[in-house]
Every structure is written in C-alpha cells, then in structure tokens.
Amino acid sequence: MTEGRPPAAGSAPLWERDAEIAAVAQALDVLCADQTSAGSLLVLHGEAGLGKTALLAETRRIAERRGCAVWSARGAETLKSVPFHVVRQLLQPALLSLLPEEAREYLGDWYEIAGPALGITDPQEGSADPQYVCDGLVAAVRRLARREWPLVLLLDDAHWADQETLRWLAAFAERLDDVSVLVVVARRPGDVSADSTRLLDAVAEAAGRFVNNLSALTPDATAGLTRATLGRHADDAFCREVWAVTGGNPYDTVELLAKVQDSELQPVEAHAGELRALNRAARGGGLVDRLKGLGLEATRFAWAAAILGTGITVDMVARLATMTDELARNCAELLCNARILTAPDPSVGTERDPDELEFVHPLIATAVYNSIPPGVCTAMHGVAAQIITELGRGAAEAARHLLKVHPDDDEELVEQLREAAREHLAVGAPDAARRCLERALQEPPRPEVHAHVLYELGCATLLTNPAGTIDQLQSALGMSGLDGDDRVDAVVRLSQALLHNDQLEEAVRTVEAEAARHEAGPVRMRLQAFQYMWECIHGETVSPARSRRLAELASTCTGRDNAERALLILRGFDAMTHGESADVVIDLCDRALVNGRLAPGLGWTDPEWGMELLMMLGSAYAYADRLDRAESLFAEARRVYTSAGWRGGHLSLANAFLGLAYRRQGRLRDAESILREGLVLAERVGRRLPLYWWSTCGLVDTLLARGRVEEAWSVAEQYGFAPPYPSTIVLPDIRSVRGRLLLAVGRTEEGVGELEAAEKTAASRGGHNPVLAPWSIDLAKALAGQDPARAAQLAADARRQAERFGTDTAIGEALRCAAALAKGQDAVQLAARAVTYLEASPCQYEHAAARVEYGIAARSVAELNRGLDLARACGAEALVAQAREVLETGRGLY
After folding, report:
1. In a 3-state reduction of DSSP, which class is residue 266?
2. For the purposes of burial, counting CB atoms within 10 Å of the CB of 590, is it exposed (0-12), middle (13-18) or buried (19 or more)?
3. Are 70 and 154 within 8 A, CB to CB?
4. How far is CA 60 from the centre of its chain?
5. What is the pTM of this model?
6. Can you tell me the distance from the alpha carbon of 818 to that of 832, in angstroms, rounded to the nearest whole number?
7. Mean pLDDT score, 597-605
C-alpha cells in the first residue's frame, strides 16, 4: 500500500493514486508559475468506479488552495443527445456572471458565433456552420482562460458528453500551446459511438504521455480501506473477501463497506460469506430492489429524477411524478438517506437552487433509469417534454424527451421536432437536427408534409456532409408534396450536393431532367443555367457542341434578371477556358454585373444560385488579366463567409480562390498562407472531394513557383495529389501542375505523360487557354532535347493560342517558352519581347522570371538586378537564388 494513503473511507478512491495526484500537482506548478506557459492536458482513463470523479474533486481542492479558478462539467448518459450540454455547463456560470456588454467585450467577434451555442444570446436566422461554431467556442475559452488565469477545467464522464462538446474539446486540446490552462478529462473505455471514440482518441493523442490508466486497488489497499472504515479489528480473511467480491473497485468497496456498517455485520472470517449478498444489494438489481423497498412514491420520485437527468429539483420532479410538494420532499429525504440522491457539493460551480439534487454516482443514475418499465419511461419522457414546453424553454430543450416517445401519428410532435431541428441548426448542431428530423419521419408526418421533412433533413447536413444530403433529397423529390419553388430549390441543392460529392454527371442529369418538366421561362432558364454551370466545370467531357449551345443561349441574354446574368457568366467562363478573346470574356462578365457590383440575389450567401457561379466569374477575370476584380470578388467571399460563420466547404473554396488570385499576382507568400488555411478547412469536410483538390493543387503550384520543390512533393504525397483526379475542373489545371511537379523532381517520363494527357483533354474540349492550362509550354520545354521538332510545334501552337486569347500574360508566357527553345540573338530578342508584355501584365512572378531570363540571355547586370528585386518581392526563392548565382559569378556580364 502506498504512503500517504487517505485516512478515511470517504477518500477511498484516492488510495493508490499517488502518481495521478503527483501529475496533477506538477501540472499545477507549471500553470501557476508563468502566465505565458503552455497549457496542459491530463486524461484519467478507467472503468466505472475506479475513482476518476474523486481524482477530479481532489484536483479541484488542490487547485483552489493554490488560488486557481476551477470550472467543471459532467457528461450524462441520458443527455448525450443535447447539443453543447456539457460545454454549456463548463462555461455558462462564468459567462452569466458577466454583464452582457462584458461578455461581448471578452468574446469580441466570436460573441455572435459562440454565444448561441453557449445559450447566452439568441441565434441568428438560418443555419450556423458547425465548424465555425466549434472554432468560436475554442476562441471563447482561450480568451476566458487569459482573463481568469490560472484556470483549471475539469470534465467528468467525457464518454457521455454530447458530440458538439467533444468536437470542441478535441479542437481545443490541439491548441493548448499558447494558452495557459490546465484541462483534466475523465472517461471510461468503450461504451461510445464511433464518432465519439474518434474525438476522444484525438483528445488522448493530444494528451500524449499524460494519459493515466487507472487500475483497481490491490488486496493490501483494500484491506487498509476496510480497516479504516470498519475498525482495525477487521481480520485478514474478511479483508481478502472484500477484495475478492469487489475486484478492488473503489466505488464498489465503499458501497459494500457502507452496507456492512448498516447491517452491523462484524468484520470477521465467520461473516465473510455474507459479503457477496450484500454486494449484490449495493448495485444493479440489488440497488433497484433497495429502491423499491423505500416505497412506490420514492421509486416514482427516483424515476422522475432519472428522466430529467439534469436540473433535478423537488418542484420539477413533483410535476413530472404528479405528486404534492410535501410528498416530493419526503421522498427526496428518503432517497438522500438511502445514498441514492444527494445535494450537489456547494463548493462546486456557482449558486444553485436550494432544492437541487443529483445522483450520488452515475452508476446509480444509470441503474435507476434502466429500471423504469419501458411504457412508463416513454410516458414520463412525453410528460417531461410537455412540462418543458409549458415553461417556455423551447422545442430544442424538449427534443431529447420527444426523441424517446413512441411513434403515434402525432402531427403536433412532428411540428415540434421540425422546430427543434431549426433551433439546433441555428446554433450549429446539424447532427442534433438530423436526429430530430429522422425521428419526425418515424411518426410519420402527414403525406403532404412528408417530403418537406425529408427535404429539411437533407438540407441539415448540406454544409458538412454532401453524401448524407443526397439520399434524403432524392427521396423527397420522389414523393408528392414538394412542389413549385420548393421542388426547384430541392433539385438545385441536390445537384450541388452531387457536385461536391464528385458525382458531376449525375448533377448534370438531375437539373437537365427537371428543366425538361418546365415550359420556357425564368424557372427553366434557371435550371438550364445550373446544367451549363455543372457542364462548364466538368474536367473531361465538355464538348465543342455544348459550348456552341451555351453561346447561342447566352447571345439572347441582356442581363435583365439573374438567370440571364448567370448564363452570361457561364458563357464568359467557358470562353476563358477555351482561350477565346479575353476582351469577349471581360465583356460577358461585366454585363453580368450591375453597376460593377454583384446583383441582388447573386451574393455569396444567397441560396438561390450558390457560390459556384461567382467562383467561375472571379476565375474568368483572374485568367483574363483582370486580377483586381478577381481579388475583390474572392476577398469579399472570404469576408462574407467568415462573417456569416460558414467555416466548412464555402470558406475553404473562398481561400483557395483568393490564393489563386494572389498566386496570379505574384504574391506567393500570401498565396501559400491562405492556401494552407483552405486546405485545413477542406480536410475537415473530407478528403478526395473536389474542394479538397483546389487547395492542394493551388498550394503545389505556388510552392513550385517559389522553388520549394521538395516541399511541393511532400504536400503532394501527404494529400494524395495524384490520379485518379476529380471529375470537376480544377484551377490551375491539375494535370499541368502535376506534370510540372514530376518534371521538377526528375521523373521526366511520368511528367511528360501527364502533360500529354492534358493535351488530349484540351483536344476533346476544342481548345484551351495556355495560361489556365500551360501544359503546351511545359511539354515543349520538356521535349526540347529529345524531340526538338515537336517542341517547336508545341511552342508555336501555344503562341498562336496566346495571341488569340490576347492578354499580356498569355503572350508574354508564350514568348518566354519560345525564347527558352531559341539560341543566340533569337533567344535574346524573344526574351526581350516577353519582358515587354509581362511588364504590362498584372502577374509579377512571371514578370520577374522573364527579367531574370532576359538578363541571363542578354548578359545584363541591370536586367538581372531588376529581376532579382521583383523575385524578392514575390517570395520566389529559387528565382532569387538563380539571379544571385549569375550575378556573383559575373562571367560575361556587363
């Protein structure tokens, strides 16, 4: 038995816990020593009854003696479906102690985002992005931790925490490096869903070596505890049997010894045989029998308390159990004396209702709840929901009880669950909304409502789970009841979900079939616009015939409504990808604007058209050398999505496209930074989805431009930047970037193969833009040594296509390629012409490269220095090194 063992039975769970207490003390030493120290995370892992809660209580005592603020929360088995339940327990008391203006000041921009999830402010209309809400909660705790230092956060029974809390906890655990706070988490193994397991494992991984796996008490410790409770006269045989019966579980040991005291059993070998019967009475079925022995009223009171799970007050229990206040108080007293219920520890948390109660241990709460007859349990949940509704606490709070009610064709319950789903979505809890809507479907809804519930269910996960959206929306559209604008909106949302799930051909067919159901007019034109939109971004099979049909339809458009504006944008994007005149591209895009701005109803968060159309508008501007307009559009997208709290796929794509604009401008450092941020966001939504490729491709392209080839290859390996590619178009051209990467790492044959595959795709599409898809330029340079005739032909084709497109960038890049293949004065003259065009271009990296190449060809120190300055400004490290090397060598320069 360890030294410093607890002297009393009440401290039993702390026996043989010296190592854990020492770890807590060491973490508190670090926390209290320096406000700038990194945060710490301890995880207490063990089966029920091994003393995790007691260790948390001891942590609180030690921390408070050292002047720490301590906030605590606890998961509950019957409350796992309540979103943000545990994180609200943790933070609400501190936030509610502040004046509203103080809370707003401390949370800053995150107040409107995290406040609704924490229950301290009303949510805004619409759906909140769950990832952004999670980020807001992380930011809120970080700010509060700095205000309250030294701060200790205790989270008990984390295995029973709601998904939203676990998502926050996993995210917070990863970001403890620069916030001084101690977090202690207690959890059991197993007994959780796959999603909860994943999140809890992430927390354990963040804790690293600070995961303490608690073990049962040894026979010696059990003997010491027995004698500390019953007296030193307890003999060895009796103590050994206590250990054998309880398996050294501290909670079971304490409960058994309490039963021994209650029964006045002498702790000697002659009575050791009675311990097993006493142990059975202390928990499980024995506990239930003991509860029944207290009488029917006390049993009903305990059942009602177990149904409530939290906020257990005599008044609430009396209402739920339909008994008088006097009878309820008598029952509460009986149950407290029987060590089933207890008053909360007054030292924990903030001011509480004097009548509030809680179960002595979660094991008791579970046993009582499981003992309720199924029919009674269902009925009591229904009554609890009714009471909560009558108290005006909202559908979301009543929902956890409504989920337990048996289906009974109840129209009112369907509407309550739909309302609860809307409330959950508004605070960023789509999983909770999904559960409510799935339960509403079991009722079932009336035929005319059924499709609408399916539609709402599909939309609940549109931001986070495109695959989950598809089945629900397809089912809704297959039923009657979803008509008019709602049906068209469902079709459009379904096509968007299919697109983002890399099912592009099905997305096209979906809107095409719906368009065929409508007569000519605004609705049909809107659907046709979506059809062409999805076809425009198809990476492989866009045909010249489709482009001609789009051009014919767009020629009838003047931009008088958003459907016509959409078709003008699509026509401009298509013309840009095929390398038609840039002037035509810009004219089409400009006609889609209203006084140079996005038209009402075509904004980044407007639901009718979606973000894809505006991404295509900005891309057309970006590759037509109107980078000022492209940057303005994409920066606005990022700002709007951030303000709206959309932290999923929308913000990821906004970052990717803004990174594209920065890369085109030559702002390589800014491009790399924002593309990395977009990639992190994309990973949260899911790998291999189209939006994931945009960030990865842009980042690889940017790193290659900077000359960081090994890092570009590492990113490609880490994020799977290799075939098979998505069916959607990716900017910059995915095969061109992959081919250039392979050439850069010396895998020439594979690189040439990728570029030739890009050539075949361009041929099937009827042409290409040599800036958007520069495969011809890269392939010409790669083949210059082994097949100079073909290289020359590719360079000539690129130059002809560039002159057709007509931008300074396109022509300048084609001339750079021609200069690279030429020799002597021809090379110098071509390089000089490339500089002339690229100097007028907004693409500063290409200008810098042209200057350096011209300086080398012309042996000009002045041109090399100008190129060096431009390369430094862009962050093009390899180009800087190349220019320096030539300048430092100085041979032949003048």
Report:
1. coil
2. middle
3. yes
4. 32
5. 0.68
6. 11
7. 88
